[in-house]
Amino acid sequence: MVDNCHFQELGAEVFGDRFNINRQVGNMTSLIDIQNQIAQLQKQAEEIRSAELADTVADILQKMAAFGISVDDLERARGRARKSPAEKSTKSAPIKYRGPNGETWTGRGLMPRWLAALVADGQNKESFTV
């Protein structure tokens, strides 16, 4: 059996085998009170964050304009520079296969139907190599 004296020292009342620990001990508050306080503080924190976010973004934009910093500059500083449209490869892959009716295929991705049908008819895929 549990030592009743220990629980009495903590301020719990002993009723036979049962302990009344719902009673507040000293300055300790209940779990529900603490959870309510946490919820209120989280709400306050979110309100403060929302209020400060707009000011912070405005401050950052002002400093970026003053120093001539672009988003690309920031990404390069992080090591993740975006390629400009001029830097992106606009060339398509070279054509490797040409069909009897002028169809083309680069050899990438799934085999096109026109070539699959010709191969199914017994022709060699390599015979259509450009």
How are the secondary structure elements laid out?
Blueprint: H1 4-9, E1 13-15, E2 18-20, H2 31-67, H3 71-78, E3 97-98, E4 104-105, H4 113-120
Antiparallel strand pairs: 1-2, 3-4
Q: In words, what does this structure look like?
A:
The protein has a two-stranded antiparallel sheet. The protein has a two-stranded antiparallel sheet with strand order 3-4. 45% of the residues lie in helices and 8% in strands. It has 130 residues and is mainly alpha-helical. It has 2 domains: 4-78; 97-128, no CATH class. It is elongated, with a radius of gyration of 37 Å.
What brief labels describe this structure?
single chain; 130 residues; mainly alpha; 2 domains; two-stranded antiparallel ribbon; two-stranded antiparallel sheet; 4 strands; 45% helix
Helix fraction, binned, reads 40-55%
- In one word, what is the shape? elongated
Task: Write down the overall mean pLDDT.
Answer: 79
Show unreliable segments. none
For the termini, the CA-CA separation is: 91 Å
Brief characterization of the structure:
This protein is mainly alpha-helical and 130 residues long. The chain has 4 helices and 4 strands.
